[in-house]
Amino acid sequence: GLGGMRVRSLGPERATHQRGRRAPARDGPHPRWGPAVAEPTSPWEAAPEVEWSVAEASASSVLEPDGCVTYEPQRTLDGQPETAWNDGVDGDPTGEWLESTFDTPVRIARSEVRNGYDKTVGDLDLFDANARVRDLTIETEDTSTEAQLSDPREPQSIGGPTAAACRVRVVVDSVYKGSRFTDVAVSEVAFFGTEDSDDTCAD
C-alpha cells in the first residue's frame, strides 16, 4: 500500500469521470488543459500522450458538506474550477492526500494541478480564504517525485513520474496559508501519459 488513512478517511469512491483507458477524444483544445494530445516528452515512447481517465478517486479526509455544497475528491475530476476537494482535518493539512486509480497501467509523462478553490461567494474569494498546496509529493507504487507549485489560479504542469502506475497519490507537504480557513483546497487534477500494457489494474 501507499500508507495509512488519516481521520475521516474515505475508501475509494467511484469518480464521475467516464470509465475507460483514455479520456474521451476531443476536437480542438481542451478548455482546461490545452491541446488534448501533446508532444511526447520522453524518448522511450513514440506514441503521443493523452489525458487519462481516472476510474476511482479517494482522499485522506474530506471537509463536511456545507448545505448542498460538498468537497469529495471527485470534485477534482468534474472540469469545474469552482468546485474543489477540501481536506477535513482540524488545523495543519500537511500529510493529507488525493489518490487517483486507473483501470489499466499508465506510464505518466506529466500531471496537472489546478490549485485552490477558485470560487467567489458574495465578497468572499475562496481561493484566498482557503489554503493552497505549495510543496507536494507525487507517489506511485514504485516512485516518488517532489515538486513545488506557485500560487496562481491557472493549471500547473509537473513532469513525471515516468514509471508505469495503477495509482497516483498527491501528498500535501506544505501550503500557502488561507486568509480565513486552514483546510487545503484543490480544484482539478489531470494525468497525461501512454498505456503501459494491455493488463488491467488489480483491485
Low-confidence stretches: 1-22, 24-46
Strand content: 35-45%
- On the 0-100 scale, what is the average pLDDT? 80
Computed CA radius of gyration, to the nearest angstrom? 16 Å
Distance between the termini: 12 Å
In DSSP terms (H or I, runs of 4 or more residues), the helix count works out at 1
Shape: globular
Main beta sheet strand tally, sense and closure: 11 strands, antiparallel
Helix content: under 10%
In terms of structural class, how would the helical and strand content be classed?
mainly beta
Q: Which H/E pattern describes the elements?
A: EEEEEEEEEEHEEEEE
Would you count the extended β strands for me?
A: 15
Could you explain how this protein is built, in words?
This protein has one helix spanning 126-129, and strands spanning 13-14, 29-30, 34-35, 37-38, 49-51, 56-59, 85-86, 97-115, 120-121, 124-125, 132-139, 144-148, 156-159, 164-176, 185-195. The protein is 2% helix and 40% strand. Strand 9 (120-121) and strand 10 form a beta hairpin. It has 203 residues and is mostly beta strands. Strands 1, 4, 5, 6, 7, 8, 11, 12, 13, 14 and 15 form an eleven-stranded antiparallel β-sheet that branches. Strands 2-3 form a two-stranded antiparallel ribbon. Strands 9-10 form a two-stranded antiparallel sheet.
